[in-house]
Amino acid sequence: MNSSMGSFESDIKRKILGRTKAEKAFRPWWDFVEDWLMNSLVFLGFLTLPTAYVTGNPVECVVHPSLWNKTQIWDPLGIGLIDRRGQSLDDEYMEENYGSPITQVRMTHWYVKRYCTENFVSKFVFYFPYILLIVPLTLVLVDRIFIKTFAAGNKIKQFYELLVEDSLQREDVENMSRENMKNLHEIMQSFRFSNVCYWSYLSRTILEIFLSIGLFLIYWCWGMPNLERDIDCNVHGLKHTCVLPNHQFYFYILAVSSALLCVYILCNLYNLVWIVWPQMGLMYRVIKKYREHIDTPAVHVHKKKDIISTDNFLNVYFDRRHKDLKLLLNLLAETSGLPESFRILTLFDKKFQSLWKPQNLRFEEYETVNPLLKMKSHSIIVRWNDAPIGHFLANYDSSLSFEYTVDIEPSPSSELGLKSVLYKKEEPILLNGKTDEGKHPECFNLLESGGTPNLNRTPNLPRKGSSITESLRYEVSFENIIQQEDEYTVTISTELNGRTVTQTVEKFPMGQEN
């Protein structure tokens, strides 16, 4: 019996309370809390189900104490029965009749218990375990009805399967962007002037708030007053008193359920505020602040004014005619973090993508000869300036880690061709090819510490367009490249909190003079 009950419980949680991968990808922490609360309420319902009065657990009743020794037909000590003249009726005593004056009223003890259970126990207490199960299932049903009615589930599934699922598993953003051009176009066509997800999410939240408040009031206004320790019961004119079994247990279960329902209401209130007041969203705050940032006059030397005009900046995100894309990106930022949402947004908005690209990318190639191996090798120095959005993000929130990762092919023979450079807040530090002492950017190889490039060497093959008189903030060097290829491939990944947002891939010929 216990195994079948446990199997039934798990089936309900999986089929009714379960979520698809697409739904989980867009469920922020408060929605996960709500799911946990619903699972807890279902668990409490199944926990109390064996004690339900419906399944044959009646109350325990005796004749009311006010009748003891006053009618001369009841022996309160249970020694025997007496008639009106005080004569013993022990010979008429039978155990199944114990608790009733059998010479006066022919009622069995089981009849009294069942009669009082059916007619005098509060319906809330009588069906309490089932009420505990109906409450979470009703709230989940509301969610399912709105998803089906607005067809929001299909939108979420399409967005997840065509783009988000692939993005969460990959770091090669450049290849992903090329491979998903068709999917991007399909998503844009599907989400253009689409608001069904937004209105479904908003309507569902409002209805769940009113419904959960109503259920909470039922708990406190109907449930708590009826959880009495004992009740009086009139059985065909004979007064009895009955004890409610599991009274204390029901009280604790109801208190816990009420607390869980209260937390559920608070989560939905927070969700409602998050929907109607976008400033509570992490992604919206960052993007809105950046729009204000580029509208203000330039006060720093290295900042370029009018990088992008707000007239055409992020229309795909801010346009009120298609709120679904904005909602899903905001939810993705809450569940998977800012980098994932920014990565998806850069695929839709190329102007926004350009803000993440490093500026003034330059390459310099040096040819050296190893005296021990008597073999020629190449050294490459990569220099660049910050992406336009880098300064803002680094100063907006200190918890955001903004960095660049440089990958080169062919890679050096003695180290991994992959190095990272953290964002530095100082002014440009490279001037006329010389590095200010003590102010070099923090550059490190992903496997070992990267060395500082030797600028005293005479460049043998300076790369075309690599002006060393220009002020550049960052540089990394790759030495001892002995493979002979037709061209180098340099990939610079712009990363936020360790996740790639966008990539810049450049190729240039190997070993050719200006």
Briefly, what is this?
It contains 17 helices and 13 strands. The chain has 514 residues and is α+β, with helices and mostly antiparallel strands.
How far the N terminus sits from the C terminus, by CA atoms, comes to 85 Å
Structure classification: alpha+beta
Radius of gyration: 37 Å
Mean residue pLDDT = 75
Overall spatial form: elongated
Strand order in the sheet with the most strands: 10-7-6-12-13
Q: Give unreliable regions as ranges.
A: 72-80, 89-106, 298-312, 428-469
> Helical region count?
17
Helix fraction, binned, reads 40-55%
Percentage of β-strand residues: 15-25%
Number of strands: 13
Provide the succession of SSEs. HHHEHHHHHHHEEHHHHHHEEHEEEEEEEE
Largest sheet: 5 strands, antiparallel
